[in-house]
Structure prediction request, 249 residues.
Amino acid sequence: MSLTLTDKTALVTGGSRGIGRSIALTLAEYGADVVITYSSSADAANEVKKEIEAAGSRAKALQADAVSLKKAEEVINGIVEDWGKLDILVNNAGITKDNLILRMSEEQWDQVIDVNLKSVFNYSKAAAKPMMRNRGGSIINISSVVGLAGNAGQSNYAASKAGIVGFTKSYAKELASRNIRANVVAPGYILTEMTDELSDDLLEKIKEDTPLGRAGDAEEVASAVAFLASDLSSYITGDVLRVDGGMAM
Prediction:
């Protein structure tokens, strides 16, 4: 059996840049029609849309507030109305607002929890009904090794990403009888726009702490997501797949 997503419909939140962009393009390369949501980067989102279409798949780019359950319902209902179904949901939207706990504001805490964790609730809840009607689907939630091991100065981010793991395991148990699978991908340090700001010294320290001796790239995360979206992973649910070069072993 080969990896194929032909005739599948996918939604990737936060799909205009970084890991989300690579996920959207990889799903399209394997044959899926792909909708991406974005917060503010319309130009980048439209470029991703064009690249998906160039791969031969249908595509949409929708501006959406990840924190709004109503908007999540509108997005998913629109996909079902236009394309008939939703087979794959990738909850990728996320932000960082790093600070030590003693210096962290309530706003910094709330923003990260809302965007990173509440958005997973919003889109997973909205996706349940159409997936249940189809008696099948795959939900992949993007967490982080920080959610597994913690990191100083990122308590809000770590809490949100750890929450995704607990949520996914619970949701997997709730939906398994309808043949809906839910899994987590937990990337390590992946080279994206977010990590471009890291100093050379910090990047070297990251490499030293990673058994494979390097940072990862977004395409490596996307390949893991494509596997979990496909029928190759049909007997996997409630699991956490680390893509971290061995960092969190």
User: Anything to note?
Assistant: The chain has eight helices and nine strands. The longest strand covers residues 180-187. The radius of gyration is 17 Å.
